[in-house]
Amino acid sequence: MTESDNQILGEAIERNSPLVLSLPSAGMLHHHRSRFLGPAEEGFWIEMPAGAQIHVDEVIGNGQGAGISFKAGETKVVFASPVLRREMEFRINEESTVAAILVRMPEQIKAIQRRSNYRVRVSPEHGISVRMWRIGLGAHVKDRPTAKQELTVKIRDLSVGGVGVTITGENGQPPKVSSEDRLRVELTTEKLCIVIEGGLRHPVPPVMGDSIRAGIQFKGLEKSLEGRQVIASLTRIVGELHREEIRRYRLGLAPTAA
Fold first, then answer.
1. Which residues contact 173 (CB under 8 A, 6 or more apart)?
2. Contacts for 139-148 with beta carbons within 8 Å, 24 or more apart?
3. Beta bridge partners of 46
4. What pLDDT score was predicted for residue 64?
5. Does 2.30.110.10 match the CATH number of domain 3-113?
6. DSSP string, the chain
7. How far is CA 79 from CA 19, 109, 116, 210, 222, in A?
8. Under CATH, what is the fold of the domain 120-250?
9. 68, 76, 133, 221: which sits with the fewest CB atoms below 10 Å from its CB?
């Protein structure tokens, strides 16, 4: 496995992340919900799902591999690896034991980037605003940039993976920003302020006058605990806006203007 893959799996094991266990039996795959329990010298432990013992014993006896899949942020991770043995009283703390399965560490895993999340329109009445700055390659995204680095932007729509904006330049000229720039994005709601690194993904052609419509992709959110907390906050914000869209549709109201 690559260092990145090893880190993704290691973090999932340490967090006791939920997973789906797929066990082959009689030419079929039987899928069970489970969770990681912790690391081991030979691999890692997962909880043995109720009703899976027959399939587990069959896989161990045949030396077959089990399929495992789990989610890490916007990435779905899948791999296959042999089941080494089961333990009916695996101790998870001083007071509790569970039935568990020891799985060998896989030689490789496959990380699949999921499709972009649902994008919702944002209007002034939602109380959500965005500020954006161009920052240097070595700058920390949380460092406060100078005023001259700030771009004039207006939010149009939002998803967990990015934000749609209109960027306006100065003195009638197109904005000075490109897909090579690192961007500091500050998303503010009535309850919180989120600072995220972003990148210009696709200005919408043609550029007319001093403004462009563009998509800004959020970066690096899956790589840290803080980033995953940001994903959770964005998910709540987008969910609330989506539910409002549904309510307006059911009442026969026009969608909010971006």
1. 210
2. 139/182, 139/184, 141/182, 141/184, 141/195, 141/196, 141/197, 142/195, 145/184
3. 36, 101
4. 82
5. yes
6. --HHHHHHHHHHHHTT-EEEEEEEETTEEEEEEEEEEEEETTEEEEEPPTT-HHHHHHHHHHT-EEEEEEEETTEEEEEEEEEEEEEEEEESSSS-EEEEEEEEPPS--EEEEPPPPP-EE--GGG--EEEEEEE-TT--TTSPPPGGGEEEEEEEEEETTEEEEEEE-STTSPP---TTSEEEEEEE-SS-EEEEEEEE----SSPBTTEEEEEEEE-SGGGSHHHHHHHHHHHHHHHHHHHHHHHHHHTTPPPPP-
7. 11, 5, 23, 49, 19
8. Thrombin, subunit H (2.40.10)
9. 76
Whether 120-250 and 3-113 are alike in CATH topology: the answer is: no
User: What pLDDT tens digit does each residue of the chain (258 aa) get?
Assistant: 677 778 889 999 999 999 999 998 877 888 999 999 999 999 999 999 998 999 999 999 988 889 999 988 767 899 999 999 999 999 988 889 999 999 999 988 888 765 556 789 998 888 999 999 999 988 999 998 999 999 999 999 999 999 999 999 988 888 888 888 999 999 999 889 999 999 997 665 555 678 888 899 999 888 788 888 999 999 999 988 888 888 777 666 555 655
pLDDT on residue 87: 95
Identify the pLDDT of residue 125.
Answer: 85
What are the backbone dihedrals phi and psi of residue 86, each rounded to the nearest 5 degrees, phi first?
Answer: -120, 155
Tokens 């302020």 correspond to what residue?
193
List the chain domain ranges: 3-113, 120-250
Comparing CA positions, the residue from 84, 105, 87 lying closest to residue 97 is 87
From the CA atom positions of the chain, what is the Rg in Å? 24
